[in-house]
């Protein structure tokens, strides 16, 4: 059984994340989408909210599991039995940081490899930060996030 883990903040999930989830889930038997509970950042959505939103928007995909974790990604990957880490590359600015993390993780556990998917061109600019910025001014986010999430995002700024 080939299982991959796709970690991130998903605060909130965007069409860019969805694209990554759909494409990478076709390459493996099971894809674990893991929400990072990062105590260093104050998120817009709680971990529970992010997990439940991801469950809602990935409900149509058969082989997705949503989890959350704190601490080292490698520990959580081992916990769920994943040997592949999926990360997305949007621009060269992502590359240096991602390379460093991937190499660190492989040094810690040589049994876990990172696979990078390049972003689909239509979502290359898209990030959770951009979504929050536009939503905070009441702008239209329908091109950025699945429609089930729109009201939940606007509600945070009311
Ligand atoms: P993190 O805080 O770990 O970067 P994010 O939720 O911002 O968490 O991103 C999770 C993963 O999804 C990262 O690998 C990131 O590169 C990728 N990603 C984010 N937005 C996009 C996008 N528009 N297209 C492709 N990949 C993306």
Keywords:
158 residues, alpha/beta, Rossmann fold, five-stranded parallel β-sheet, 6 helices, 20% strand, binds adenosine-5'-diphosphate
Name of the CATH superfamily: HUPs
Can you list the strand order of the major beta sheet?
3-2-1-4-5
- Distinct bound molecules: adenosine-5'-diphosphate
The rough form would be described as globular
CATH fold node name: Rossmann fold
What number of structural domains do the residues give? 1
Give the integer mean of the pLDDT values. Answer: 96
User: Strand share of the residues?
Assistant: 15-25%
Backbone CA Rg: 15 Å
Straight-line distance between termini:
45 Å
Q: Give the second-level CATH assignment, the architecture.
A: 3-Layer(aba) Sandwich
SSE series = EHEHEHEHEHH
Going by helix content, strand content and strand pairing, the class is alpha/beta
Largest sheet entry: 5 strands, parallel
What is the CATH domain class?
Alpha Beta
Tell me briefly what this model is.
This protein is of the alpha/beta class and 158 residues long.
Question: Mind explaining what this structure looks like?
Answer:
With 158 residues, this protein is an alpha/beta fold. The protein has one domain (3-156): HUPs (Rossmann fold). The protein is built from six helices and five strands. The chain has a five-stranded parallel β-sheet, with helices on both faces. It starts with a strand and ends with a helix. Bound molecules: adenosine-5'-diphosphate.
């Amino acid at each position: 059984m080939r299982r991959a883990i796709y970690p991130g903040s998903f605060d909130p999930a965007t069409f860019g994340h969805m694209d990554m989830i759909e494409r990478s889930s076709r390459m493996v038997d099971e894809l674990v989408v893991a929400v990072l509970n990062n105590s260093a950042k104050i998120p817009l959505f709680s971990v529970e909210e992010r997990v439940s939103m991801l469950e809602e928007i990935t409900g149509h995909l058969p082989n997705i599991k949503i989890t959350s974790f704190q601490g080292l990604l490698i520990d959580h990957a081992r916990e769920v039995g994943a040997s592949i880490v999926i990360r997305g590359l949007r621009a060269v600015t992502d590359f240096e940081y991602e390379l460093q993390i991937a190499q660190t993780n492989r040094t810690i556990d040589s049994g876990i490899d990172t696979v990078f998917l390049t972003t689909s061109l239509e979502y290359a600019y898209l990030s959770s930060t951009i979504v929050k910025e536009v939503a905070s001014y009441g702008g239209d986010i329908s091109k950025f996030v699945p429609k089930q999430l729109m009201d939940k995002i606007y509600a945070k700024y009311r």
